[in-house]
Amino acid sequence: MKFRVERDHLADAVAWTAKSLPTRPSVPVLAGVLLRVEDGVLTVSGFDYEVSSQVTVAVQGDSDGAALVSGRLLAEITKALPAKPVEVAAVGSHLELICGSARFTLPTMPVEDYPTLPAMPETAGVVDAQTFALAVHQVAIAAGRDETIPMLTGVRMELEGETLSLLATDRYRAAIREITWRPNEPGASLYALVPARTLHDTAKTLGPLGGDVTVALSRGGVGEGMIGFAGGTRRTTSRLLDPDFPKIRALFPEDHKAWARMNVSALTEVVKRVALVADRTTPVRLSFSDGEVVVEAGGSEDARASEAMEADFTGEPLTVAFNPSYLLDGLSVLDSPKVLISFSQPMKPAVVTPAGDDGESIPGYRYLIMPMRVGS
After folding, report:
1. Which of 207, 226, 249 is the last residue of a domain?
2. 3 state SS of 22
3. I need a surface site. Which of 39, 161, 201, 241 has the fewest CB within 10 A?
4. What's the domain range around 39?
5. How many domains are there within the chain?
């Protein structure tokens, strides 16, 4: 195997593939990326039996072949190379990289020991890449990180007709985002529970490419329990989590008794400042009244902070307390300069949504956050 390629193209391909490799692989070859050249096309692949990644790059190929090398090491090296074309060649049991006056020699692993990447499941439909990336980002923040409860570490995808819904929760908050997509079968009803980290990394990478993302989902038989995404020259597959998932739609209150409309950036800055005195488990209190909200927090050693800001508030005055990190997470993903927070009762879940210029909620995204109890 011998080829010549632009440094940036090689570095991007290797970095994207190596990102999903395990840090502690069960067998050494799973820490590698497979480089294969055929007919002037370089294919960079990675697979750990859970997630597979593959990207193709056009190269000047002198000879076809394949080589398996440490993915993370190759990613670090290609990123650090000077901005010049890279010559790559497999020589015996090593891979040589030459870029300008820089030369690296890396040991290779047996290609025959590397597992075969799974084929893409059956295509279910396509969705706009940028819309999909934003939707996943908005929902993934609410996914759990406790690996002892696997189902809460996933994002549930519900594919009903032309609506693609994404849902996530960690028991303290929940998020739902609904977008339109183009299914292969208009009347199809499918669902999948996808590991949140894998879904987020995939959407984040495919979003900037523009165009469409192809969603492929197994329906029994070959590839059962697998989902795939493809965009541009990149594709990835992932095994699915157990399909059991809480019915989080029922957590969102149907009726509200109070509403607060505020500027997102202003509220974000106020919460960040006030939360400086708060311990990790200390909430920030928001006291709403006509025309304003007062944000307060008290931490250790009697450290306290409060700040008032303008708020368009409708309803009886109320005080509610939130985990500041959870509140800031919800504010950070709103695709709007204004936020609408709806309340039913001070100790019932509040719903955060983006708001339009008229102050009304913009349909599509809802972020539910549980309040915290505070002393009198």
Report:
1. 249
2. coil
3. 39
4. 2-113
5. 3
